[in-house]
Amino acid sequence: MSTEPETFEPYASLDKRPFELAPGVRLWREALSRTQQAVLVEEIVRLSADAPFYRPTMPRSDRPFSVEETNFGPLGWYSDKNGYRYEARHPLTGRAWPAIPSLLLSLWRDLTAYPELPECCLVNLYRQHARMGLHQDRDEAALDAPVLSVSLGDVALFRFGGTARRAPSRAVRLVSGDVVVFGGAARLVFHGVDRVLSGTSTLIPGGGRLNLTLRRVNPLRPK
Ligand code: SIN
Ligand code: MN
Q1: Is residue 36 part of a domain?
Q2: CATH number of 109's domain
Q3: pTM to 2 decimals?
Q4: Does 222 fall in a domain?
Q5: Is 8 a member of any domain?
Q6: Which domain holds residue 197?
Q7: Is the CB of 70 under 6 A from ligand 1?
Q8: For atom 3 of ligand 1, which residue has the closest CA?
Q9: Is the CB of 124 under 6 A from ligand 1?
């Protein structure tokens, strides 16, 4: 019997217009209800027993990230001294990644106009002091697809700028249940997490913040 929920209560704010943080960067504030957030966290904990969190390392220097990561979906984003890339298997277990939870696929269908499902759900776990430097998501051939990002747990100071590293940037507080979508002219915006405000939520067992980033990797097949 599937343990995945089949139906979901209405999203808290999906029926409302998102905040346009910048052209092409949209925020649905607390789009997931508390119940949906708890269901999702429970599912992530369950799936991460099969695909455990690990600490990726930086290309060349091999320095470990401060975030821990795992993935769901046919492809997982991975980084080590050999570079950034997508892998079909978990680096430690050698097993295929677990399927992307259906709640996240529903969000993708509802909030993006993209005709195919995402192939990767990167899961970032921010325990105390973890952060993420300013970067672009550019390891995907399907740059016509947007990036959809869900925040769970502690508040994050999310920074985003322009498509050039030195362009002015600003930070926005992302709270648990928030969904951000960036695409089109904003698909390659630089973004990162300055810091996570530790102890602002009790949602995540052991504390901290989870971020789920959905991406399409391969371009659409010609019809
Ligand atoms: C990422 O860009 O991979 C994560 C962003 C976030 O944690 O909000
Ligand atoms: Mn990113």
Answers
A1: yes
A2: 2.60.120.590
A3: 0.94
A4: no
A5: no
A6: 19-215
A7: no
A8: 213
A9: yes
Number of domains in the chain: 1
Q: β-pairing, 170-174 with 68-72?
A: unpaired
Nearest CA to ligand 1 atom 2: 192
Atom 5 of ligand 1 has which residue's CA nearest to it?
192
- The verdict on residue 164 lying in a domain is yes
Could you give the CA distance from residue 154 to residue 144 in angstroms, rounded to a whole number?
31
**Residue range 94-121, pLDDT digits in tens:** 999 999 999 999 999 999 999 999 999 9
> Strand 147-153 relative to strand 191-197: parallel, antiparallel, unpaired?
unpaired
127, 132, 139: residue to mutate for ligand 1 pocket, most atoms within 8 A of CB: 132
Bridge partners of 149, per DSSP, are 180, 213
Q: What is the pLDDT of residues 5-25, one digit of tens each?
A: 334 444 556 667 799 999 999
| 216 phi, psi to nearest 5 deg | -90, 135
Q: Is the CB of 191 under 6 A from ligand 1?
A: yes
Q: Map tokens 């999203």 to a residue.
A: 11
